[in-house]
Specification:
Helix content is 8%, strand content 39%. The protein is built from three helices and 23 strands. It is mostly beta strands and 304 residues long.
Amino acid sequence: EHLYVFDMNGRFLNRIGEIGRDPNQVSAITSFYVDKNKKVVGVYDGFRRCIHRYSYLGIEYDKITCGEQIESGSITDVNVIANRELLLTLSCGIDDLYNYAILSADDGSLKAYILPYQVKYTENSIRGNLSCFARPGEKLWLTALLSDTIYEYADGKIIPKFVVKSSLATIDAEVFVDRKEWISPAHAMAFLRDNGYSKGQTGIWANDRYLYFDMFCRGSWYSIYYDYLNHKGYKSKQYSRGNVLMPGRFLTTTSDAFVSYVTAYDFIHQPEGCIDVDRPLWRDLRERTMEDDNPILLLYYIRK
């Protein structure tokens, strides 16, 4: 129901956002972003379709109404990007036309819609909780639903950056010529799978050297780590989550690592059937962890 602010030592400082029905309160925290340049935290209220902007201390500055600007698609995520812009991830349901919208971070005015959806759906849906974009350094890379292309957004322009190819046929516009509508994205993905096509890239992460994404190929899921500086790729087959410390379920990235988490409870009491690799570091952490501690952040570094 709130955002909580902690210092670097894990000490609680203050809350951000008041839940309630009054005009200056938040009905539901759907998404939030941190604008480090202006020292502002933006909280998106999905019920009222507006962004409440606060200081780091939790003092509200103002409110931006998004519903009046966005005519196509529900807003599922809000992030601040370069050039004082907000990137809005949009849903993919009935009459939804675009993957994203760009707003001014100053007044919330609409600047552009980008990356149109390739098909129409007959039922409302969302893109799920996968990361639809990556931010290596000052760059911004975007995915589009049912697309093998990863795009770069810079200076108001969309530029194809990578095309992911495998033993499956690559998705292109011709795939959708005869099939204009599907019930949902899952229905469309099933059609692509059954006809030998890739299902596209949706979840991506990137640090200063590696691009990470998941790929489904010939009945199995693979984790792909692409060294985009040296143009080399590394893949690993995904298995059932037999260890709570396996890579995946990423939250964000640092300059050289992918960041995941495990709850303190699961770290101490692993689910039945999990494979527990006993390492001195993990054993030491377990001895110092209590069930009600904060989640433990895990940093994964790529090694050849």
